[in-house]
Design brief:
The chain has 192 residues and is α/β, with parallel strands linked by helices. It is 60% helix and 14% strand. It has one domain (2-185): Rossmann fold (3-Layer(aba) Sandwich), CATH 3.40.50. The protein is globular, with a radius of gyration of 16 Å. Bound molecules: adenosine-5'-diphosphate (ADP).
């Protein structure tokens, strides 16, 4: 099994690149943002709860997010590996993920971190807002808060994965294909 965390700030291109990795390495894609948005659209209990945090640029509480993640894994077990996109975003989430995978006799192989400058992130999110229909992309204050939350709560995970020798920084500037090529190269060298 190959299990990859695709990591980076909002707008770094995690979702776009995750899809490329899914095709090449036959992974099952778990995007917590996508699962939340599906629930928001269907106005499930989870969706209504998540919406109140997401529209402010806050994180959905760990307890709720971890429970959802476990249920995504449990309903998709016959797979060659997972790519986690948008999870973990806090230290308790990373610890929970390690535990869940260990219980299944597997573990994270690598955390691939897309490195993108703040100005470029804001520009990408502004552009994405034009066609994504995402309320959290349309409001500059919400974008600023998402970046702040990333810096405060999520970026400490770099050290978490570096301590396990699993952290790989990838230049996230350039064309989508250039970045995909960098990711493939890193993964292939780690798996070799
Ligand atoms: P982006 O990375 O572009 O901000 P995502 O689609 O990954 O977008 O996430 C959208 C929002 O969903 C986040 O801003 C956050 O509110 C919520 N969310 C997604 N994943 C998590 C998570 N692991 N923990 C808490 N909240 C999350």
């Amino acid at each position: 099994m190959i299990n990859i965390v695709i990591f980076g700030p909002p707008g770094a291109g995690k979702g776009t690149q995750a899809i490329k990795l899914v095709d090449k390495y036959n992974l099952f894609h778990i995007s917590t943002g996508d699962v939340f948005r599906k629930n928001m659209k269907e106005q499930t209990e989870l969706g209504v709860l998540a919406q109140s945090y997401i529209n402010k640029g806050e994180l959905v509480p760990d307890e709720v997010t971890i429970k959802m993640l476990i249920s995504e894994i449990e309903s998709n077990t016959n797979v060659e590996g997972y790519i986690f996109d948008g999870f973990p975003r806090t230290t308790p989430q990373a610890e929970a993920l390690d535990k869940i995978l260990a219980e299944r006799g597997t573990s994270i192989n690598m955390c691939l971190a897309l490195d993108v400058e703040e100005e470029e992130l804001k520009e990408r999110l502004r552009k994405r807002a034009l066609d994504s229909g995402r309320a959290d992309d349309a409001n500059p204050e919400v974008i600023q808060n998402r970046i702040k939350v990333y810096l405060e709560e999520t970026s400490p995970l770099k050290a978490y994965y570096a301590n396990q020798d699993k952290f790989v920084k990838i230049n996230g500037h350039g064309s989508i294909d250039d970045i995909t090529a960098r990711l493939f190269e890193s993964i292939d060298s780690i798996l070799a």
